[in-house]
Amino acid sequence: MAKVTLNHVYKRFANNVVAVDDFHLDIHDQEFLVLVGPSGCGKSTTLRMIAGLEEISEGDLYIGDRLVNDVAPKDRDIAMVFQSYALYPHMNVYENMAFGLKLRKFSKAEINQRIEEAARILDISHLLDRKPKALSGGQRQRVALGRAIVREPQVFLMDEPLSNLDAKLRVQMRTEILKLHQRLNTTVIYVTHDQTEAMTMGDRIVVMKDGLIQQVATPHEIYNHPVNQFVASFIGSPSMNFLNGRLVEKDGQLHFEGEHIHLRLPDDKAKVLRDRGYVNKSIIFGIRPEDMYSDHQFLEANPFESSLDAHIDVVENMGSELYIYFNNIGRTQMVARVDAREGLKPRMSIRLGLDLSKCHVFDSETQVAVF
Ligand code: ATP
From 37's CA, which of 214, 262, 299, 358 has a CA 20 to 30 Å away? Predict the structure, then answer.
């Protein structure tokens, strides 16, 4: 069993920085768990504590059922892949992959067999004689993965392994790492600051900020039910739109009133907000760019009070869809993702319909999600 358990783990550095604050989580056997968050949120420190490269200030760490707080990195049955690849420049690919096994006194035949197998999986069999400098970035990253695979560890730790690759290769390697995970049936703990990587790779995602876990959930759950405004803004591209305003009752209906915007909330959402005591209170209203529509069919089928006037500033053409940036409601810049066939252009004035069944509401003071 290669579950990993972090039991109220803290990391305090000498300069009083609490880099990791009460990290408490069971990582399941064979799970692909992604730690994501902005720079400095503590994700690398968490990974380095699991690897044994950083001492734990407080709390317990288990790999399987074994308490490993005081176990040396080499005895933890883990392998780590770094952003920098960390290949030995004077050794060829074969020697780089063999190095860890030689240290552990594996027989030559065993080393050969493991390297051949890993090289086949990663499609680098033809590169075994080359030195790292004669490899492309993608090939180097494959070798770094190969060096981890041959160890046959219980747990793989990966710290931004794709950051040095160009965009196309990154997408390709993403799929390869996922295939590798399915094939090897091991636990993977993967650190990234890239929310797309987190969404596409993780069985579960841990979103961190300032050393604290914000939310642990599946990509679907995190995207559709973010627990607070930070998670809502960090996950999703382009980001969710936020508007400040108040909730007011008018003619038995609950309305959101922001600067130059009035929306009548659907009955089920209104009920939750009334029950929670938000009538006549300030709230933050959230809507994702893809939950706004510019087509006539949508506008005709939905009440007028669920749409807004938009004067388009910028249009980004993504091929199949357009990102339209507009800011004529108050001073808030907003963005909508619409079908490219709509043919929208900068400086056009349009009406955008909002799918309010998908809207989010956050408490103005705590930024915690009501829904
Ligand atoms: P990045 O994506 O930039 O690598 P991160 O989320 O991985 O960021 P960490 O590297 O874990 O963040 O750092 C978390 C916090 O701990 C930061 O505030 C950082 O400055 C601090 N920190 C990291 N290492 C040390 C250290 N050796 N001594 C003191 N503070 C440190």
Answer: 358
Ligand 1 nearest atom to the CA of residue 45, by list position: 11
Reported ipTM exceeds the 0.95 cut = yes
Q: How far apart are CA 319 and CA 341, in angstroms?
A: 10
DSSP H/E element including 82: strand 78-82
Ligand 1 pocket at CB < 6 A: 13, 15, 17, 19, 37, 39-45, 193
CATH code at position 353: 2.40.50.140
**CB-based contacts of 225, cutoff 8 Å, min separation 6:** 217, 369, 371
For residues 286 and 241, the answer to whether their CB atoms sit within 8 Å is: yes
Longest dimension (CA), the chain: 82
In this structure, what are the phi and psi dihedrals at residue 10, rounded to the nearest 5 degrees? -125, 150
Is it true that the peptide bond before 89 is cis, omega within 30 degrees of 0? no
The C-alpha atoms of residue 292 and residue 222 are separated, in whole angstroms, by: 20
Higher local confidence (pLDDT), 11 or 137: 11
Q: How many CA atoms lie within 13 A of 255 on its CB side?
A: 17
SS3 198: helix
State the pairing for strand pair 155-159/78-82. Answer: parallel
Highest mean pLDDT (candidates 48-57, 84-93, 337-346): 48-57
Residues 349, 332 share a domain: yes
pLDDT digits (tens, 9 = 90+) for 246-264: 999 999 999 999 988 899 9
For a ligand 1 pocket test, name from 15, 43, 212 the mutation site with the most ligand atoms within 8 angstroms of its C-beta: 43
* 229 and 245 part of one domain: no
Tell me the β-bridge partners of 212: 209
pTM of this prediction? 0.94
